[in-house]
Automatic annotation (TrEMBL):
Protein name (Swiss-Prot/TrEMBL): MFS transporter
Lineage of producing organism: Bacteria, Pseudomonadati, Pseudomonadota, Betaproteobacteria, Burkholderiales
Signal peptide, first to last residue: none
Molecular functions per Gene Ontology: transmembrane transporter activity
Record bears the keyword Transmembrane: yes
Keywords on record: Membrane, Transmembrane, Transmembrane helix
Domain of life, per lineage: Bacteria
Annotated InterPro entries: MFS, MFS_dom, MFS_trans_sf, MFS_Transporter
Origin species: Duganella guangzhouensis
Compartment list: Membrane
SUPFAM superfamilies, sorted: MFS general substrate transporter
Length: 380
């Protein structure tokens, strides 16, 4: 039987930190890979799909693995494979091998993400308080550290392979420290769970809301700079300010989110978060000046920061299917939003305008707010 205490909470935070570190490694390597392999934008776009493809293949299976073998084995094996594959992104000699490596990295990180979220749900439930926002906040911190360290090393002239290996070593160190206190046994309620259950009921609703929130987050990552430079006239060298404002606000929101959720309750935070995010999207489009548009991105980050953690808690608490399988389904739907988001926004922007596409994202955040108000997520 798993015993949950401060050390288990620490091990969960370290797993989220490790995942954030690993996820941040690839983005700084993209220009180097494109130049090294002389790929066109179209070829690079096809290769980039492999990262999400690996995640989408592995995630639905991970719920079954955690229910059978426990979180510790799943997290440690997927973490070890991540550390093994990540440096290969810096030296894969052909586009085909780079795509295969990205697929493997996507599969291993996707497995790690589901495993750590299953542990997070169990630890939060057994601890009797809100912890999920803080766990996800450590993922964001890991992303900042990983991306910043990679950028610094590459700027100093360290080779891409060595830089990626250093970050992979930090991932390994985080998981080694976490390993003794990761949950060894499967959740007692799920030992006899079926190998697969088609998502249904509340899980579909929670997954759909995760899809909308991740779609909004992915759109800010991929399109905020273009919105600011084209619609607001901001210089291209400063186009990243929108995403920076969003990311900093989201991290701060998550690191303080557990206290907020305990004080207001999950439903109320979901409602207020959806409204805040919607206001941010509308302001980013309608703002007459760049500073006000940046305030809009801050509001998006604050509003969205605790939506996904609350939804993962809801997935773990629902009773229509085993929690591990529900979390795998919700995570898969969420990642599908990240994958589909850039393309969907591009289609809408091409057919009308980028401003209209961002306005639609504000409408999606209102749907998230409405789900809480109508009681759609009953155990958030």
């Amino acid at each position: 039987m798993n015993k949950v205490g401060p050390l288990q909470r620490l091990s969960t935070r370290l797993a989220f930190l490790a995942s954030g570190l690993a996820m941040a490694t690839w983005a700084p390597l993209v220009p180097f890979a494109k130049q090294r392999l002389a790929m066109s934008e179209a070829e690079l776009g096809l290769v980039l799909l492999c990262l999400g493809g690996g995640s989408m293949v592995a995630m639905p299976l991970t719920g079954m693995w955690t229910a059978r073998f426990g979180c510790r084995l799943v997290v440690l094996i997927s973490g070890a494979l991540t550390c093994l594959f990540v440096p290969g992104l810096a030296f894969a000699p052909t586009p085909l091998l780079l795509g295969a490596t990205l697929f493997a990295v996507g599969a291993s990180i996707g497995t790690l993400d589901v495993g750590m979220n299953v542990q997070a749900v169990i630890v939060e439930r057994e601890s009797g308080g809100s912890l999920m926002s803080g766990f996800h906040g450590l993922f964001s911190v890991g992303g900042f550290i990983g991306a910043g360290l990679m950028a610094l090393m590459l700027w100093l002239g360290v080779s891409p392979t060595v830089s990626a290996t250093v970050v992979a070593a930090l991932v390994a160190l985080s998981l080694i420290v976490a390993a003794p206190h990761l949950l060894r046994e499967p959740d007692a309620a799920e030992r006899d769970a079926p190998l697969f259950v088609v998502p249904h009921g509340a899980v579909i609703l929670i997954g759909a809301l995760c899809f909308l929130c991740f779609l909004a987050e992915g759109a800010v990552l991929d399109w905020s700079a273009l919105l600011l430079t084209v619609d607001q006239g901001l210089d291209a060298s400063r186009g990243g300010l929108g995403y920076a404002a969003f990311a900093i606000a989201m991290t701060l929101g998550r690191l303080t989110g557990d206290r907020v959720v305990r004080g207001l309750g999950g439903k109320r935070v979901l409602l207020l978060g959806g409204l805040c995010g919607a206001a941010g999207f509308f302001l980013s489009v309608l703002a007459p000046t760049v500073p006000l548009a940046l305030v809009g991105f801050v509001l998006i980050g604050l509003g969205a920061s605790n939506v996904v953690p609350i939804l993962f808690t809801a997935a773990g608490n629902q009773a229509v299917m085993p929690a591990s399988l529900a979390i795998a389904a919700v995570t898969s739907l969420g990642y599908l939003g990240i994958l589909a988001g850039p393309a969907l926004i591009g289609f809408v922007a091409h057919a009308s305008s980028l401003s209209l596409a961002f306005g639609a994202l504000g409408g999606f955040m209102l749907l998230i707010a409405a789900s809480a108000r109508l009681g759609g997520v009953r155990k958030a």
